Amino acid sequence: MSEGLVVSGLSAGYRGRPIIRELSLAPIAPGETVALVGPNAAGKSTLLRALAGLLPASGSIRLDGAELVGLRFTERAKLVAYMPQTLPQGVDLSVLETVIGALRASPTGAGLSGDDEASAKAVAVLERIGIVELAMEPIDRLSGGQRQLCGLAQALVRAPRLLLLDEPTSALDLAYQLRVLKLVRALAVEQGMMAVLVLHDLQAAARASDRIVALSHGEVAAEGAPRDAITPELLSRIWDVRARIDTCEQGALRIMVDDVA
Amino acid sequence: MALAVLLVGALLVDIVTGPSGLGIGEAVAGLIDPDSLSPAQAAIIWQVRLPFALMALLVGAALALAGAEMQTILDNAMASPFTLGVSSAASFGASLAIVLGLGLLPMGWAADWMISLNAFLFAFAAMLLLQGVSRLRGAGAQTLVLFGIALVFAFNALTSLVQFVSSQEALQQLVFWTMGSLSRATWGNVAVLASVLVLVVPFSLGSARALTALRLGEDRAASFGVDVARARFLSLLRISLLAGTAVAFVGAVGFIGLVGPHIARMLLGEDHRFLLPGSLLTGALIMSLASALSKSLIPGVLVPVGIVTAIIGVPIFLFLIFRQGLARP
Q1: Is the pLDDT confidence value at B261 over 50?
Q2: Quick check: B271 and A49 CB within 8 A?
Q3: Exposure pattern of B63-87 as b/e (b: 16+ CB <10 Å)?
């Protein structure tokens, strides 16, 4: 049995409107973090939702040798956790309650003996993300960034094999962006988990991932280590911008966008 | 727990209240040992007060539970069997059964069941329509509420039509519903509604985890491993059973299904393991109190309980609307 995630010939979209067609990715190994980038409407979220099983898809998604396409919700939920961009408004639950709720609703948590075990797990995750002081806060009173962290906790508490995050840092300030991205990568390595993140910020994507997958019009436009995948040619081709790329003194990739092409 | 204690108290008050002035002591004694009372008093308690009071309690429980589930699966705080036309649809179904069915079936169990079955079928149809609208692209909370109001008007008009063409006897029965009255409560009816609750409540509580997850958004719930489509459909079935049966026996009693869950939510939050039983108890409690009030509002006159719940419910309903309106960014 081969470990890791292999996506091949994947097509997915909405009724009568396929967004991604026959898409294949290089195998993703356990512990790897992959950033999905691309212009608006390139199919990033569609690919992520298809991986999560939320859209009808054809083709093959093999996770540790097991085929995910066509797998039942409950079976898939044991392996995959997906975090959408937003938490709904007007919900009268505390942060801790939503994390316990996530655990209890999923097959991962069904075997837990009691409330104590579930809360212990939930609190441990909140501590890890650094929001344990928000545990009793109603989610309606959270700031945008806090809401994202709460959503992340709901995904992480289930200890998935494959973690799918849709723009996990869009509402976070600089420090929190760094913290969250570092945390996800560290957890992936630590638990042998695979993480796929949709990110808009190329610089952050380059910094936070082992591999970049750039999408354009539902197809893979470039794929590989950040340094290899992100090129001025790619930026001009799929984003229509003129850019220079170099490496700063500390070794990080530096992208300077000069103008729209 | 506190809710349950309050409920028992309200039930007692409800039993004790009434035109023929029994004391609390006498009533309790009569419940424990019927022989301690005169035959007339025993008859009042066992044949009139107790079925009335139990019916009030069960109807409140059923409507509030249905309302709580509706608010969750339609993701709309204004949802309840009454406000979105499910009760009206059930009334129409039941009125059809009475007008068309009374001659065919003898009064008693069979008729009770048939009326509730019909009420259920129409309630279910209304729920399917609401569900369909709530899933239309671009249909927001307002669209759903407006559609629900359209359903209310449509089914009320149809019920009026049935009333217009029905016989004198059937008409008398029908008029009771439009007002929402407990006066048709019999042991048979109480048994039917109680069995429906006994049947539905375990499934409802069993789905608490899925419903809590649904509050966090459909995608999220699905990724937790909840089969959202199935959870919604089963919930629709339960709502229709609860609302349909309740409406079949007491008519369109308004606002319990809306207000009950909201009070429970304020007290207990939205973890459905607590919210669902909380709504059930709150609904039963409010309805018991309303029933007691309906007997004492005008001395010697039994005001239809639907009128009382509307008087209590409308201000709360308006409060919710305005609070929602102000909270919207």
Answers
A1: yes
A2: no
A3: bbbbbbbbbbbbbbbbbbbbbbbbb
